[in-house]
Write a structure and sequence with these properties.
mainly alpha
């Protein structure tokens, strides 16, 4: 039975390779989804992206707190890096959203 799984490609795969594969596929899917959005939908898309980033930053802060309590430097520093990247994404998203909304305002004469 195990010989059939190995021949069928069902051998043991490293968890790191598996997670890296999922991460790379998510990058490609995200790229094609974002670039296929029409310009009229960019503002709602940015609002959803900001909401997702705000949830991720909460997880990053929890990782920082857990790492500082357990003494794990790796968890603390990855949590700090994730929080910093999420903060850049959130504030950049607000700036882009403001610019997009300014495009739809009537120009005063």
């Amino acid at each position: 039975m195990s010989a059939m799984l190995i021949l069928a490609g069902g051998g043991a795969v490293s968890p790191i390779v598996f997670q890296l594969t999922i991460f790379i596929l998510a990058i490609f899917v995200g790229y094609y989804v974002v670039w296929s959005v029409t310009p009229a939908l960019h503002t709602p898309l940015m609002a959803v992206t900001n909401a997702i980033s705000s949830v991720i930053i909460v997880g990053a802060l929890i990782a920082v707190a857990a790492g500082s309590q357990s003494g794990s430097n790796m968890s603390t520093w990855t949590g700090v890096a994730a929080a910093a990247l999420c903060a850049v994404n959130i504030f950049g998203g607000f700036l882009v959203t403001q610019r997009m909304l300014a495009m739809y305002k009537k120009k005063s004469k």
